[in-house]
Amino acid sequence: MVIFLVILTLVGASYAGGVSGIKNGLLAIITGILFDYLVMYLMNRPWHFPDGALITGIIVGGILSPATPWFYVMMTTIIALLSKHLLKDKRRPLLNPAAVGLFISAILFSTGESWWIGLSMIPSWCAIIMILFGMFIASRINKLPLVFAFLATYMIFFLIAGILNSAGAGDVLRTPYINAALFLSFFMLTDPPTSPAKYREQILFGCIVSMVSCAAFLLVSRLTYLFIGLFISNLLKLAASKMNRAPIHGAARR
């Protein structure tokens, strides 16, 4: 996962001005790692390399616009990791940390998003690299049904919306929106702690998160619509796990 994200970062930054994106990415990574080490120190936890903070930093830095000021990059990363430590069920985060940080940053600081790690700033054929990496990752963690359900519903929804002449519906099948949807489906929606494991649930959740995202694009925000859908998926996964852990009445009485 880390290797693929680093490669996508380097390829995605090959456009003119990509150095700014690399700088923001490195800043987000360093901020994330130092913040997690600080949490380990304050909470008196065993020391280990915070690979989760590394991945969160790469994603945050790669989605934010390269023109984002450095202090907003740091704030977004800290908010993301705070959500990981505060919003959790046992030891697992309730929501995707990077998505939380980016969503709140967009609302509070009006930070822009370019999804350049999704290769949105370079020729469109380069998205094949992301698709191959994403397919490999999703296959290894058994999340392909989730990805396919999300993307199929996404395409069908906006195809119908385009036929009905919904405002802006045609834009989502072009750069950078399609790159954002592909990156999110492969590298964020499939996050094991916040996504379902059973194939049937993956298909159901993929369809639901896609429909919520699409509706949010048309009705709420073209900046945060994917995160809104992702949060719904995370919460559905939490609800499903709670139901699976609930004791059967007969067993509870025994």
Briefly, what is this?
With 254 residues, the protein is mostly helical.
What layout of secondary structure does this protein have?
Elements: H1 2-12, H2 18-42, H3 51-63, H4 70-86, E1 88-89, E2 92-93, H5 97-109, H6 127-140, H7 144-163, H8 177-187, H9 199-219, H10 225-245, H11 249-253
Antiparallel strand pairs: 1-2
Descriptive overview:
- This protein is mainly alpha-helical and 254 residues long.
- The protein folds into 2 domains: 2-116, no CATH class; 140-245, no CATH class.
- 67% of the residues lie in helices and 2% in strands.
- The chain has 11 helices and 2 strands.
- The protein has helices at 2-12, 18-42, 51-63, 70-86, 97-109, 127-140, 144-163, 177-187, 199-219, 225-245, 249-253, and strands at 88-89, 92-93.
- It has a two-stranded antiparallel sheet with strand order 1-2.
- Helix 1 (2-12) packs parallel to helix 3.
- The longest helix is centred in the N-terminal third of the chain and has 25 residues, at 18-42.
- The radius of gyration is 18 Å and the shape is globular.
Q: How far apart, in Å, are the first and last alpha carbons?
A: 45 Å
Into which percentage range does the β-strand content fall? under 5%
Radius of gyration: 18 Å
**Domain module count:** 2
Total DSSP E strands: 2
Helix content: 55-70%
The low-confidence parts are 248-254
The largest sheet is: 2 strands, antiparallel
> Taking all residues together, what is the mean pLDDT?
89
Oligomer: single chain
Alpha-beta classification: mainly alpha
Give me the number of helical elements: 11
What strand line-up does the widest sheet have?
1-2
Order of helices and strands: HHHHEEHHHHHHH
Shape: globular
Organism: Sporolactobacillus mangiferae
InterPro entries: NqrB/RnfD
Protein name: RnfABCDGE type electron transport complex subunit D
Keywords: Flavoprotein, FMN, Membrane, Phosphoprotein, Translocase, Transmembrane, Transmembrane helix, Transport
